[in-house]
Design a protein that fits this description.
The chain has 228 residues and is of the alpha/beta class. The protein has a domain of 111 residues. It is built from five helices and eleven strands; from the N terminus they run E-E-E-E-E-H-E-E-H-H-H-E-H-E-E-E. The chain has a six-stranded mixed β-sheet, with helices on both faces. A hairpin with an 8-residue loop joins strand 3 and strand 4. The longest helix has 16 residues. It binds adenosine-5'-diphosphate and magnesium ion (MG). The site of magnesium ion has 4 residues, from helix 1. Adenosine-5'-diphosphate (ADP) binds next to strand 4 and helix 1.
């Protein structure tokens, strides 16, 4: 798919290398303003946002609250239209939104089944992947519990698990561990390192300064612009 319309994500057919590795995601010159009614000028959130993600990298996207991190990630995912710039991606994507998008009446198992089907996985693969995720994040005991009865922390685990179920090439996580306890937080980083070792790529939005050493690279977002 190619095109010049600003809302199009271009899916690259052939891999691109840039001297530092194979590029799986590239966003360049992304701009975005939110309209706020005729009384107010649009809120210019992104004026020049750039990001490159390569195979086997864990990259952090950091910035103050309200700096536009979630906006930028939604544009990268393709769930929000950008005003300008380009986004090119190669490979499958898993996205963990900052606000979990879950169905209150469905259980954890039912969520995995639903997402597995949506990703076109065969049932056996969904089950293996699901059981792995339950084990790693430690919430198998809630497999038959409806989301409406889950705590915020378990919802956050399910939200992350659903982004992982199809073993995506590119994992995009928007503050995924905000509700995690310490043990789960550490397991999360083990899981992320395993993905890197398997040649997958992970982009994580974080506002914890302490995490910076866990990333291979950090991209800062400030005043609508990124700096590396
Ligand atoms: N749908 C929207 N409509 C209008 N303004 C929005 C919308 N989403 C976010 N904003 C505003 O855009 C700015 C950036 O938001 P966001 O991308 O969520 O920042 P961050 O994730 O870095 O905290 C904030 O000032 C926020 O209030
Ligand atoms: Mg955010």
């Amino acid at each position: 798919m190619t095109g010049s319309a600003p809302d199009r994500i271009i899916s690259a057919r052939s891999s691109k290398t840039d001297g530092k590795g194979t590029v799986v995601l590239e966003a360049s010159g992304v701009t975005k303003a939110y309209r706020r009614g005729w009384r107010h000028a649009p809120l210019r959130v992104l004026t020049d946002a750039n990001l490159t993600l390569r195979t086997g990298e864990i990259v952090g996207l950091v910035g103050e609250n309200g700096s536009g991190k979630s906006t930028f990630m939604k544009i990268i995912v393709g769930s929000l239209q950008r005003d300008g710039g380009e986004v090119t991606r190669q490979g499958s994507v898993g996205y963990c939104p900052q606000q979990p998008i879950l169905y209150e009446r469905l259980t954890c198992d039912e969520h995995f089944e639903l997402f597995g089907r949506a990703y076109g996985l065969d049932p056996g693969m969904t089950e293996r992947s699901r059981d792995d995720i339950y084990e790693t994040l430690g919430f198998v005991k809630y497999r038959d519990t409806r989301v409406e009865e889950l705590s915020g922390g378990t919802r956050a685990k399910l939200n992350l698990g659903l982004a992982l179920v199809h073993d995506p090439d590119i994992l995009l996580l928007d503050e995924p561990y905000a509700g995690f306890d310490w043990d789960t937080y550490l397991r999360f980083w083990d899981l992320t390192a395993e993905r890197r070792d398997a040649g997958r790529s992970v982009l994580i939005i974080s506002h914890f300064v302490n995490d910076e050493e866990r990333f291979d690279r950090v991209v800062h977002l400030r005043d609508g612009k990124t700096t590396s």
